[in-house]
Amino acid sequence: MAASGTRVPIVVPDFARTADKPIALSLWAKKAGQRVEEGARVVDLTCDKTDFEIPSPATGVLVDPSTDYNKELAVGDVVGWIDTAIAPWIWDPPAEHPSAVGRCTHCTALLFPGDFRCRNCAALV
Ligand SMILES: [Zn+2]
Known about the structure:
Number of domains: 2
CATH architecture of the largest domain: Beta Barrel
Number of helices: 0
Strand content: 25-35%
Largest sheet: 4 strands, antiparallel
Number of strands: 9
Bound molecules: zinc ion
Strand order of the largest sheet: 1-7-6-3
CATH superfamily of the largest domain: RNA polymerase II/Efflux pump adaptor protein, barrel-sandwich hybrid domain
């Protein structure tokens, strides 16, 4: 899990721990590739039968979410990343498709002005 300039880690915060009970992943509120706003719920952690909603540390796109729900987590562990470079509002279209306005959050196909469904996977965008 090497950090890069555009990836902000989602870490297990210290408030997720009660007493000495183990922390584990509970539920991702976003799927890989989905856009998430800073402060919006991105993942739930569970500890001692209590779920904690973890806010996104940045605005961007969820990448590499951990799916190991059985793993015991420690405070400070990274469970996923927010890539801020592919956020739609700082979108920089590829040179060969200068009119593209973003990428499908499901399949990453390019989107163009007026598209309301992805041309590749037909997902609503
Ligand atoms: Zn698509």
